Amino acid sequence: MHVSDLALDDFRSYEHLVVSLEPGPNAFVGANGQGKTNLLEAIGYLSTLASHRVGADTALVRRARPGTPQPSGAVVRARVVHGQRPSVVEVEIIAGKANRARLNRGQVRPREILGVLRTVVFAPEDLSLVREEPGLRRRFLDDLVVVIKPALAGVRAEHDKILAQRSSLLKAARAASRGSRPPASMMSTLEVWDAQLAAAAARLIAARVDVLDRLRPWIASSYDQVSRGRSRAGVVYRSSLLAHEGLPEPSPGGDDRSAEEAALSDTAATAARLEAAMTDLHHREIERGANLVGAHRDDMSLFLGDLPARGFASHGEQWSLALALRLASYEMLRHDVDAYGGDGEPVLVLDDVFASLDAGRRDALAELVAQAGQVLVSAAVDEDVPAQLRGARFIVSDGEARRA
Ligand SMILES: Nc1ncnc2c1ncn2[C@@H]1O[C@H](COP(=O)(O)OP(=O)(O)O)[C@@H](O)[C@H]1O
Ligand SMILES: [Mg+2]
């Protein structure tokens, strides 16, 4: 698929922008702060209804200069060519209120536009996927789970709701127990929540393990290409059950899923293990007032060779690994014919990537993505756009993007 036209109103630094894009490579060139990332962010937002840089949507609405009228919302609209049928998809971001969405001019619920435009965005912020807290890696997996199986968005939401309710109950039990045991009625309510949380978490975990399994060969091959075969990237699902059950920490593994991952894909067995762990942990959970085991405490462990990437890999290696995770998502979605009937190739967005790569890695990446159905890249100067990606070129400056 590709975006053929994009229009922005009051989005970030753009008061009004209309631009036509081409299939294949499109390069956005301009000095820092001119609006390259803003434009790419708008495209990503239309695809996921979330920004890759901020949690709160209020930052997305243009802040007018003092003395000029402040817009109440932003509009992002795109024409997406997917197979034979183009679709026009639009979202209106209203400061402090729910979004409004339109598909082919008809009003729809925002959720209904998800999937019309598929993107994979790589931005410098993705370095945190390798470096930071497990929460970002869980979100990476969960987002892919939902792209592949939209029905699992419901399971994810249900899981989060049960988790919050169980957490409130644990806090209430802590307040009620004060040195002794909490009332029996609270304990029996807790057991009901144990079963519900275990069931929802087990479904989410099985879906994550499945996605990781599909992703694994692409992570290895993407990293191999980006790093020019310097070391091997490995990825293993790390369950919070391991520590509780006294099982060893995951090791780098190989091309196949580990025995532990295979076990986690059995939803009924995982639910039973989680419920047993919660029963053992009740006392500590009440003391802490927090859920201590489950999908929300799991991680995706990343390795380069035999060493964990977090804490051991160099800056350049971490960067290449983060990039490989996004490229792997792209390759997986592009090749996942069952999920999309063969026409689901996402638009690939590479924000400010090439300047940070040495010449060898830059060429390897350019070769890898040159054949993409549509790839949008940004760079501060023309020299940072590899020759393989010379296609449509746009100059971004002062709230405008003009075809050059
Ligand atoms: N909501 C907003 N309203 C107006 N300007 C904004 C808004 N959000 C960001 N900007 C401006 O956009 C510019 C950053 O644009 P960005 O796309 O990140 O630049 P780059 O071309 O370096 O990627 C900054 O000058 C910032 O002040
Ligand atoms: Mg930028």
From TrEMBL:
Domain of life: Bacteria
Protein name per its UniProtKB record: DNA replication and repair protein RecF
All copies of domain RecF/RecN/SMC N-terminal, residue ranges: 3-380
NCBIfam families: recf
Gene3D superfamilies reported for this sequence: P-loop containing nucleotide triphosphate hydrolases, RecF/RecN/SMC, N-terminal domain
Subcellular location: Cytoplasm
Listed SUPFAM superfamilies: P-loop containing nucleoside triphosphate hydrolases (SSF52540)
UniProt-annotated binding residues for ATP: G30, A31, N32, G33, Q34, G35, K36, T37
Keywords noted in UniProt: ATP-binding, Cytoplasm, DNA damage, DNA repair, DNA replication, DNA-binding, Nucleotide-binding, SOS response
Any GO MF annotation of the entry: ATP binding
Protein family membership: Belongs to the RecF family.
Cited InterPro entries: DNA-binding_RecF, DNA-binding_RecF_CS, P-loop_NTPase, RecF/RecN/SMC_N, RecF_2
